[in-house]
Amino acid sequence: MRGQGVSHLSRLELQILGDNTKMGWGLLAPIRSQTVSRSLLYNRRLPHSSFTPYFFQHFQPPSGLTLPSETMAKDMTLLWGSGSPPCWRVMIALEEKNLKGYNHKLLSFDKKEHKSEEVMKMNPRGQLPAFKHGDKVLNESYAACLYLENQFKSQGNKLIPDCPAELAMMYQRMLEGLTLHQKMIDVIACYWKVPEEKRPSSAGEWSSESLTTEIKLWEGYLQKTSGGFLAGKTFSLADVCVYPTIFTIFRFRLCEERYPKLAAYYNRLKDRPSIKASWPPTWLENPRGEDIMKDI
Amino acid sequence: PCWRVMIALEEKNLKGYNQRLLAFEKMEHKSEEVMKMNPRGQLPAFKHGDKVLNESYAACLYLENQFKSQGNKLIPDCPAELAMMYQRMFEGLTLQQKMADVIYYNWKVPEGERHDSAVKRNRESLTAEIKMWEGYLQKTSGGFLAGKTFSLADVCVYPGICYVFHFGLCEERYPKLAAYYNRLKDRPSIKASGPPTWLENPQGQDMLKDI
C-alpha cells in the first residue's frame, strides 16, 4: 500500500534496491525540476547511482488502497528548495502529521528558480517555500506549520503539548527561533558577499558577536530544559521550526565541543523519521559545508 | 510588539494584570528588572505564573489557546480564514522589519556606516511591502485581515499599520489601508491599549510621507 514506505515490496525487490540508507540524491540532480511523486523522492532504500532517472519515473508501488492522509495531501502543493530551513520546517511538519503523497517540486535557488513565473504565481514575494492546500495559500513556513497542526490535530504526532507550561515554552522558543535564524543568515550572507580569494583562511573574521551570544543563549536553554526537546518532554512545533536552523549551523561547522547540549540535541534528532525523510537532498551529496561557523 | 500583547489581553477580557510602563529613551528596557524577566533586554516581557512569554506573537498565541472560551474568539473556525490569519500574521513580521529599517535607520546604523543607497533601498522595499498590504485589503472582503472576523492577524499587524500612519503615510495613496486603520481605531481593545505617548502627540514625524 502506498504511504507505508517499502514494506509492501517483496523481499526480492528489496534485495534489488539494496539496503543503502543513503538516499540517491545525486541521481535526482538531472530530474530536479520534474514533479515526482513524494513516495519516490523520499524512498530511502533507493541506491545511489546504479539506476537511471527513467527508473524513478517508472517504478511505482502497486496501486492499492489510498490512505485517507494521502487523499488530504493530494490537494497540497509544496514548492521548495534544498537546504532552505523554512522549506524543511514545512516538510517535517507534513511528515509528522502523516501527510504523504502531496504534490511537490524541488527548485534550484542557484538557477533563480524561486523567481520563476510558477513560484511568483503562488508567492508574489518570489520566496520558498510556497505551500498551498486547496486554495489556501501558506507561504510563510511558520504559518504552514501552525495551520497543519491545527487542521490535522488528530492524525500523526501531536505537535502542540497540552501542558500549559510546555505550550508556553513551545511558542516562546518557536518565535525566538526566528531571531536565531536571522542572525545565522546575517553571518552566512556576510561570508558569501566576500569573493573567495578575499576570504581569510582563518575563519576568525566571520565570528559574529551577535550570533555567538544567541547560540550561547540556546545552549543555556537546552541546559535548563529537561526532557530533550525545546519545549520539554515532547517533540513539538518548536523543534519542527528551530531544528532546521540548528542543523544548518552545525553543517557550517559550529564546534560541537563548545556547545555540547546543542550538539547532543542536533545529533539525537538527526534520526527522527520525519527529519531523516525530509533531509535536504543537496546536503546528502555534500554533508559538510564551509566552516563559516567554526569560530562562533 | 507590546501593543499586540495588550490588545490580546483586552480581547480575552484579561483585566487587572500587573503592568509597568517603561521608557525606551531612558534605556529602562536594559534595566535589571527587565533583564531578569527577559535576558534579551527587550520589551514586552510577559509572564503568566512562571511561564515566560517575551515574544509578542508567542504571548498572543498562548493567550488565545489558553483562554479560548472567554472574551472574543481570535482564531477563526473556517479553515480558509484560519489559513489566511496565520499567513498574514507572519507576513506582518516582514512588514515590521521593513518599517523598522526605514524608521530606525539612523538609530541603528552608526554615522560612519550610513549610506544614501541603503536608505533608498530600504524605502523602496517598504513601499513595495505597503503596496502589497494595500492589495491584500483590496482582495479580502470582510474588513479584517483574515476575512470577516477580527483575529490574531489583526492583533499582531494592526499596531504596525497604525505605526506607519503615525509616521505620516499618505492616506490618499493607500485608501484601503487607511480605511482599515481608521475603522479599527475605535475598537474597544485597541482604544483601551493605545500607546499613551501617542495620545499626547497624535501626529508623529512625517518620515513616511513620501512612501
TrEMBL record, chain A:
Residues 163-296 form the GST C-terminal domain. Residues 74-156 form the GST N-terminal domain. PANTHER family: MALEYLACETOACETATE ISOMERASE (PTHR42673). CDD domains: GST_C_family, GST_N_family. The lineage of its organism: Eukaryota, Metazoa, Chordata, Craniata, Vertebrata. One of its GO terms (molecular function) is maleylacetoacetate isomerase activity. One of its GO terms (cellular component) is mitochondrion. One of its GO terms (biological process) is L-phenylalanine catabolic process. InterPro entries: Glutathione-S-Trfase_C-like, Glutathione-S-Trfase_C_sf, Glutathione_S-Trfase, Glutathione_S-Trfase_N, GST_C, Thioredoxin-like_sf. Signal peptide: none annotated. It holds the Pfam family GST_N_3. It comes from the Eukaryota. It comes from Sparus aurata (Gilthead sea bream). This is Glutathione S-transferase rho.
From TrEMBL, chain B:
PANTHER family: MALEYLACETOACETATE ISOMERASE (PTHR42673). PROSITE patterns: GST_CTER, GST_NTER. Residues 1-71 form the GST N-terminal domain. InterPro entries: Glutathione-S-Trfase_C-like (IPR010987), Glutathione-S-Trfase_C_sf (IPR036282), Glutathione_S-Trfase (IPR040079), Glutathione_S-Trfase_N (IPR004045), GST_C (IPR004046), Thioredoxin-like_sf (IPR036249). SUPFAM superfamilies: GST C-terminal domain-like, Thioredoxin-like. Residues 78-203 form the GST C-terminal domain. Its EC number is 2.5.1.18. This is Glutathione S-transferase. Residues 192-211 are annotated as: Disordered. Keywords: Transferase. The keyword Transcription regulation does not apply. The keyword tRNA processing does not apply. It comes from the Eukaryota. GO terms for molecular function: glutathione transferase activity; maleylacetoacetate isomerase activity. GO terms for biological process: glutathione metabolic process; L-phenylalanine catabolic process. GO terms for cellular component: mitochondrion. It is an enzyme of class 2 (transferase).
